[in-house]
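hi!! sorry for the late reply, been swamped w classes. u asked for the two structures so here they r. pasted raw, havent cleaned anything up. first the sequence of the first protein and right below it the tokens
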Amino acid sequence: MSKFVFVLTRGLEDPTRVTRTFQLAKAAHENGHEVSLFLTDDGVVLAKEGMADNLCASLMS
């Protein structure tokens, strides 16, 4: 098992990069790796409840 840290500096203005980061983090987690997300700059807005729901709804399926 490896450890991954994903640093996300983008927010709602760049949904493609945000979604891709969440997809990569999910894939790593599903393969048994320890995953951390570090939100900085515009990415911190995603920490607010409900903000990432629309961007990442497809990841939940």
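now the second protein. again sequence first, tokens right under
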Amino acid sequence: MIRKILLFLLIVFIAIQFFRPEKNVSTSISENDITRVYPVPENVQQILSRSCNDCHSNNTQYPWYAEIQPVAWYLADHIKDGKDELNFSEFGSYRIARQNKKMKECIKELKEGEMPLKSYTLIHTSSKISETDKQAIISWCESIQQILQQKYPADSLELKKPK
């Protein structure tokens, strides 16, 4: 009986390998990419590439284990959630108030140590952010907020709640 169950599980495991989620890989930089809309210093760009872009851009660098189901499904869902929250590749398409809010949220998440996720840095140890890196990103986010404040009236920087 155990042998039949194991054989069945093996067949299911093999069968699910043929059902793959679409990969998050772009061949070009979007017109709305944050690097086309705001200045991104080289050191910040390196930190974003190393620690943020796998989940928060249109171009994920996939590890070898992303080829195995059900891991690929989990990663695809995780990346979708990350991009829904903040997508640097589409940042320029956000309303001004949303851009401001996302920069505020980035600062908060970094200060509280919420990003990058512990589950991500556990496996991707090179993606850990040092205090120096954290301060560089925070300063960059604040500089974007300053640009927004100089360019737009204060009331356009706040998200309005529906009545």
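hope this helps!! also noticed smth abt the second:
The mean pLDDT is 87.
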